[in-house]
Amino acid sequence: MPWSNQSGGGSGNGGGWKGGGGGGGPWGQGPGNQPPDLEEMLKRSQDRMKQVMHGGGVPGPLAFLAAVAAAAVVGWYAFFFRVDPDELGVVMRFGEYVRQEPPGLHFRWPYPVEEVVKPKVTRQNIIEVGMRSASIDRGFGGGGIQDVKEESLMLTGDENTVDIDFVVYWRIKNAEQYLFNIANPDNTVKEVAESAMREVVGQSDIQPILTQARQKTEQAVLTLIQQTLDSYQAGIQIDQVTLQKVDPPGDVIDAFRDVQAARADKERLQNEAFAYANKVVPEARGEAERILQAAEGFKQGTVAEAQGQTARFLKVFDEYKKAPEVTRKRIFLETMERVMGGTDKVIIDSKSGQGVVPYLPLDQLQRRQPTEGGN
After folding, report:
1. Range name among 10-24, 114-128, 361-375 with the lowest pLDDT average
2. Are 235 and 173 within 8 A, CB to CB?
3. Helices (H), the chain
4. Which of 74, 231, 246, 346 yields a CA-CA distance of 20 to 30 A from 162?
5. Rounded CA gap, 242 and 167, in Å?
6. Which residues pair with 299 in a beta bridge?
7. Residue 169 pairs with which residues in a beta bridge?
8. What is the pLDDT of residues 132-145, one digit of tens each?
């Protein structure tokens, strides 16, 4: 074999880095091609290491400064920590919460005695329910929004299906509760938000949710989420709930629009009927009241006139009893004056012998004088 220098090659002594007879090997024959001695190389490396350890290779002051610098770095990272302005330092000793530190530089015992967790308490976090905003990090392209139907489809109180996408904005309000009472904050907020939205939608009709009750729905969901998280002592503050999309499912949206149009026509016709009724009924009531008032006035006038006539007759009768002849004559004259006052009169004197007596119509002369003067 090529690694053996013995003729007839083949016995058990012929292999290895050191050859027998000529001192050759796999690197060729002759003294100039000897393989490196690994034992010698290891020995030299150990000697150099000992020299460095005993100060033989590095001057004493430089080694001291290097040691001091290394100790300072190790001490800095072991005994001190820094809290950024948007963070809060939560210190745990052997895994148990002991204190909180505000932003700045603070002392701690080195790990594993004390450990520091620094949650970002001022950052506003966002949870999307029913949709996922498109981003490269999420792995589905660079534009638009991806719907998550299993989260967005909900059943309303009037047994309709609605597709709702909404966003929840939250932040940390109690770092201790946030770190130690819930295991997965993002997932917890998401599941609580979805459950709260389903509960509120399940107690509402679809029409108000699609139109004027959006703000009311957002406030009701926010309140319910906050109450649930507070019962968990999650240490989370819900800042806002925003409805992004509230639509009927895409498969039935055309039929839904037809139903809504018919419902709008129904409401319009009902409103017109109510407006007509509100106009006609008051007019009829007013006319009826006017007739009643007129009848009441006629009644009272008739009664009053009858009472007056009765009182007049009684007074005349009293005077009649005092002087019957005078009273009869006066009544006759007044009656004749009332009857004859407005008629043309012809006076006949039977004693004159001529029958008809001409008379001078003074009233006609009085009416003609202004007319003649005008001509």
Report:
1. 10-24
2. yes
3. 38-53, 60-79, 149-152, 175-180, 185-202, 206-210, 214-232, 253-322, 324-340, 362-374
4. 231
5. 5
6. none
7. 126, 240
8. 886 534 444 445 77
Cα(356)–Cα(69) distance, rounded to whole angstroms? 163
Q: State the pLDDT confidence band at 223, using cuts at 50, 70 and 90.
A: very high
Structure tokens at 331: 């009544």
DSSP assignment of 303-323 = HHHHHHHHHHHHHHHHHHHH-
Q: How far apart are CA 276 and CA 269, in angstroms?
A: 11
- In the structure encoding, which two tokens stand for residue 351, read together? 């004693």
Strand, coil or helix: 341:
coil
For the residues of 182-245, what is the DSSP string, one character each?
Answer: -S-HHHHHHHHHHHHHHHHHHTS-HHHHHTTTHHHHHHHHHHHHHHHHHHHT--EEEEEEEEEE
- Please state, in angstroms and rounded to a whole number, the distance separating the CA atoms of residues 375 and 361: 22
Distances in Å between the Cα of 270 and the Cα atoms of 145, 207, 263, 273, 280 are 41, 18, 11, 5, 15
d(CA 27, CA 35): 7
Task: Give SS3 for 146.
Answer: strand
Q: In which residue are the tokens 């639509």 written?
A: 247
What percent of the chain has pLDDT above 70? 68
Please state, in angstroms and rounded to a whole number, the distance separating the CA atoms of residues 140 and 132: 10
Which letter, b or e, does each residue of 295-310 get, where b requires 16 or more Cβ atoms within 10 Å of its Cβ? eeeeeeeeeeeeeeee
Question: Can you read off the two tokens belonging to residue 103?
Answer: 């932003």
Task: Write out pLDDT tens, residues 178-218.
Answer: 888 888 889 999 999 999 999 999 998 888 888 788 889 99
- pLDDT, one tens digit per residue, over 108-120 is 777 777 788 888 8
Please report where in the chains the tokens 């003649």 appear, as a residue: 372
